[in-house]
Design brief:
With 283 residues, the chain is α/β, with parallel strands linked by helices. 36% of the residues lie in helices and 19% in strands. The chain is built from 10 helices and 9 strands. The protein has a 6-stranded parallel β-sheet with strand order 1-4-3-2-5-6, sandwiched between helices. Strands 7-8-9 form a 3-stranded antiparallel β-sheet. Helix 6 (126-141) packs across helix 7 and helix 9 (203-216) runs antiparallel to helix 10 (222-234). The chain binds adenosine monophosphate. The site of adenosine monophosphate (AMP) has 17 residues, from helix 2 and strand 5. Adenosine monophosphate binds next to helix 2 and strand 5.
Length: 283
């Protein structure tokens, strides 16, 4: 039996009209487009677990700061739609910024403590934009499950908090980070990297992997891991480190001792490109 082709909604009302007629479990994969194998792994997981799969493509202006890459962010809608259709998505929503934030919009969601460190510190207002748009996507799609990547570890913590605090009846499914063969985490922003940047970009995963090896040896002092990561990152003169963190995976507070699971995360600038990566250890 040939599969019915993917339905496309532009307005909120179009989305609701299509959604209402889809019965059975619904899985949502929110994206900003410029799709790669990481995004498609989320779709595949949703496809395996849900009767219906929806995706959104929306470059959310509210999660970009004033000097950030909103206008440069890669966009290729035709290619993205073909990839989603090929991956078996039933319904895709591609709202415009004007639909999402019409004149007069003034209701924002702030997830407080877990939004403050790490990305929240480097990118003020970022998680307010993320939490608000994700809440709007949840209301629009009414999914039973929503799929997010471990690549954006703090985003997962913020969204889990949002779902719990505001009683969204939605299960959050976290999918492993998909990497290039040399370890670089896939990201739409990797398209910004020059050939030279691309070679240097392996430094993030090399730093994390070296710290993981040390963790497995059973050290108790997180400063050991920090020193290892710092020395690998500093050996790459083109990398500018924004932060190195060894934190509790739930509270995101820096740990003083390696007893239980920890989240190693880092943000690095290579030229004009800002890259993040993380590993969850002992989880
Ligand atoms: P984005 O389009 O970058 O906002 O990402 C949409 C979703 O895909 C988010 O839940 C990301 O965490 C997830 N994602 C992005 N890159 C990867 C990756 N390399 N592996 C797994 N998930 C990813």
């Amino acid at each position: 039996v040939p599969k019915e082709s993917m339905k496309k909604a532009s307005t909120f009302q179009e989305l609701r009209d299509i959604r209402t007629n889809l019965h059975g479990t619904f899985g949502l994969v929110p994206t900003m487009g410029a799709l790669h194998a990481g995004h498609l792994s989320l779709v595949r997981r949703a496809r395996a677990e849900c009767a219906n799969v929806g995706a959104s493509i929306f470059v959310n202006p509210a999660q970009f700061g004033p000097g950030e890459d909103l206008s440069a962010y890669p966009r290729d809608l035709e290619r993205d739609l073909a990839l989603l259709e090929e991956a078996g998505v039933d319904l895709v929503w591609t709202p415009t910024a004007e639909m999402m934030y019409p004149a007069g919009f003034q209701s924002w969601i702030t997830v407080e403590e877990v939004s403050r460190p790490l990305e929240g510190k480097c990118r003020p207002g970022h998680f307010r934009g993320v939490a608000t748009v994700v809440a709007k996507l949840f209301n629009a799609f009414s999914p039973d499950r929503a799929y997010f990547g471990q690549k954006d570890a703090q985003q997962v913590v913020v969204i889990k908090r949002l779902v719990q605090d505001l009683n969204f009846p939605i299960q959050i499914v976290v999918c492993p980070t998909v990497r290039e063969p040399d370890g670089l985490a896939m990201s739409s922003r990797n398209a910004y990297l020059s050939a030279e940047d691309r070679r240097s970009a392996t430094v993030l995963y090399r730093a994390l992997a070296a710290a993981e090896a040390e963790f497995r040896r059973g050290v108790s002092d997180p400063e050991r891991l920090r020193t290892i990561m710092r020395s690998i990152l500093h050996a790459e003169p083109r990398a500018n480190v924004e932060y190195i963190s060894i934190a509790d995976p739930d509270s995101l507070i820096e740990v003083k001792e390696l007893a239980g699971p920890v989240l190693l995360s880092l943000a690095v600038r290579l030229g004009k490109t800002r890259l993040i990566d993380n590993l969850l250890l002992g989880g």
